[in-house]
């Protein structure tokens, strides 16, 4: 039993970063992590982080040849469904890192700043004070159930969202379960090309229609061929084998290793805070809408949280939802609006069949270097003149029977819903008492939009018995 300022549930990227920053602010911090140190973040080995984002958030960039760094590479292309057309993305260097090693480096930095870590500690429930407000957490170790009191409990537990899911329905923080339809099941094939003359970096890129990509893999491999999909790993593997590898001609290769992992693909929770509580990272569904990556995108919210929470503690003010509400408002303005308003547009884009997408790549309709080359960090910047040009070219494509009217309807619907979400998030309430009315509008709009899982291939779902 102990008393802390901050108790963090989960010791991966967001949990370690938040722990280090809050400890540097002079807070007494405890991190409880259910895995043992040797098992933390072991679902896959290599992960990528943008070099600019690492600099922005003060993340260490190991020197070349120093663990846990593996490689550095430039921007990747967006590639058409048949691998014919390449559209260059923004010039944003990426660092390839060994995930477990890097997370443990982050944990060590947090410890050096004063944070305490307990591994093999599984969150079981909240501790409440006499007024019924969260005052800490119960957790289970090999020695039995333990209790730690804290002014704030931060859920950084990832997809399980173990603390957030314990909140009552009356909480402003959504307590929904992240279900298989709202998860990207990612399969990574580490490959070695059989022809030694193949230049692997010439094949790097992202295929939006399959949610697949080719990227560097580190020493001993030529590339990672990755794919992500809703519902199950089996669905992702089926798309990879029956569509991606059939339509995109890669040099012959040998699969040396396969890894599997999950990332949430769901709009973010509406509110991150309640009395004595905050949810962060994957547990709050803070992932990039274009690819599902969340390691650095979640730190936008975490940085705001550090500023607000540390100020409140220094001023000896309670960590109530009222006092922390500005975290919600500031995040919506900084990133939340852009992330969530992009989701419905992407849903419209991925409903295009392969021939339609290929035609649009060829004619710079949506899939254009002007668009992808102007990506601002995490967000696609849509300009009025680009949209007007696309509409003219789309009309021509319909007349030539290269684009179906049903696809146009999906694109227009996605664009309209993107704008509606943007306007709704602009109206995010200043105070908690106005939240319920806003939430009702948001719930209705997201019910209309649906989820990316609705764009999955119905024939594959039927084959796999997924309903």
Task: From the structure above, extract its key features.
single chain; 467 residues; alpha/beta; FAD/NAD(P)-binding domain; D-Amino Acid Oxidase, Chain A, domain 2; 3 domains; eight-stranded mixed β-sheet; seven-stranded mixed β-sheet; 18 strands; 23% strand
Give an overview of the whole structure:
By secondary structure, this protein is of the alpha/beta class. It contains 12 helices and 18 strands. The chain has helices spanning 13-24, 51-56, 99-112, 233-247, 298-314, 321-350, 354-362, 369-372, 384-399, 405-426, 435-449, 458-464; strands spanning 2-9, 29-33, 46-50, 69-73, 77-79, 86-88, 94-98, 116-119, 122-128, 134-141, 144-155, 183-193, 205-207, 212-215, 223-229, 253-264, 273-274, 277-279. Strands 1, 2, 8, 9, 10, 11, 17 and 18 form an 8-stranded mixed beta sheet that branches. α1 packs parallel to α3 (99-112) and α5 packs antiparallel against α6. The chain starts with a strand and ends with a helix. 45% of the residues are buried.
CATH architecture of the largest domain: 3-Layer(bba) Sandwich
Write out the CATH superfamily name of the largest domain: FAD/NAD(P)-binding domain
How many structural domains are formed by the residues? Answer: 3
Note poorly predicted spans.
Answer: none
Give me the secondary-structure topology.
Blueprint: E1 2-9, H1 13-24, E2 29-33, E3 46-50, H2 51-56, E4 69-73, E5 77-79, E6 86-88, E7 94-98, H3 99-112, E8 116-119, E9 122-128, E10 134-141, E11 144-155, E12 183-193, E13 205-207, E14 212-215, E15 223-229, H4 233-247, E16 253-264, E17 273-274, E18 277-279, H5 298-314, H6 321-350, H7 354-362, H8 369-372, H9 384-399, H10 405-426, H11 435-449, H12 458-464
Parallel strand pairs: 1-2, 1-11, 2-8, 5-13, 11-18
Antiparallel strand pairs: 3-7, 4-7, 5-6, 9-10, 10-11, 12-15, 12-16, 13-14, 14-15, 17-18
């Amino acid at each position: 039993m102990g008393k802390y300022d901050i108790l963090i549930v989960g010791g991966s990227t967001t949990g370690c970063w938040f722990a280090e920053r809050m400890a540097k602010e002079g807070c007494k911090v405890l991190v409880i992590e259910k895995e043992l140190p040797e098992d933390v973040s072991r679902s896959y080995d290599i992960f990528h982080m943008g070099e600019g984002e690492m600099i922005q958030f003060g993340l260490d960039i190991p020197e070349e040849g120093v663990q846990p760094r593996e490689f550095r590479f430039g921007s990747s292309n967006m590639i058409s469904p048949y691998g014919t057309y390449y559209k260059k993305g923004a010039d944003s260097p990426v660092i390839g890192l060994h995930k477990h090693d890097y997370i443990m480096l982050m944990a060590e930095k947090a410890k050096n700043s004063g944070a305490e870590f307990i591994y093999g500690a599984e969150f079981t429930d909240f501790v409440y004070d006499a007024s019924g407000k969260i005052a800490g957490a119960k957790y289970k170790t090999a020695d039995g159930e333990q209790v730690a009191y804290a002014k704030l409990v931060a859920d950084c537990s990832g997809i399980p969202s173990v603390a957030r899911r314990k909140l009552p329905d009356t909480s402003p923080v959504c307590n929904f379960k992240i279900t298989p339809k709202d998860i990207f099941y990612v399969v990574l094939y580490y490959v070695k090309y059989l022809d030694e003359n193949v230049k692997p970096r010439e094949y790097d890129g992202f295929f939006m229609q399959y949610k697949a990509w080719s990227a560097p893999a580190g020493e001993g491999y030529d590339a990672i061929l990755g794919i992500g999909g809703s519902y199950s790993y089996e669905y992702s593997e089926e798309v990879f084998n029956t569509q991606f590898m059939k339509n995109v001609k890669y040099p012959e290769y040998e699969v040396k290793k396969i890894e599997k992992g999950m990332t949430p693909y769901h709009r973010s929770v509406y509110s991150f805070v309640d009395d004595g509580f905050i949810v962060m990272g994957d547990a709050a569904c803070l992932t990039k809408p274009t690819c599902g990556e969340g390691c650095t995108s979640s730190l936008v919210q975490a940085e705001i949280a550090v500023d607000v929470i540390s100020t409140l503690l220094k001023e000896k003010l309670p960590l109530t939802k009222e006092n922390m509400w500005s975290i919600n408002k500031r995040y919506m303005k900084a990133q939340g609006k852009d992330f969530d308003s992009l989701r419905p547009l992407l849903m419209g884009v991925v409903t295009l069949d392969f021939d339609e997408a290929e035609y649009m790549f060829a004619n710079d309709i949506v899939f254009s270097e002007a668009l992808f080359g102007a990506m601002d960090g995490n967000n696609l910047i849509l300009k009025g003149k680009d949209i007007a040009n696309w509409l003219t070219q789309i009309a021509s494509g319909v007349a030539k029977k290269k684009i179906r009217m049903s696809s146009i309807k999906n694109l227009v619907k996605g664009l309209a819903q993107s704008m509606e979400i943007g306007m709704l998030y602009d109206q995010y309430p200043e105070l908690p008492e106005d939240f319920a009315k806003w939430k009702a509008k948001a719930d209705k709009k997201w019910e209309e939009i649906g989820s990316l899982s609705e764009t999955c291939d119905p024939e594959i779902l039927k084959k796999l018995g997924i309903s």
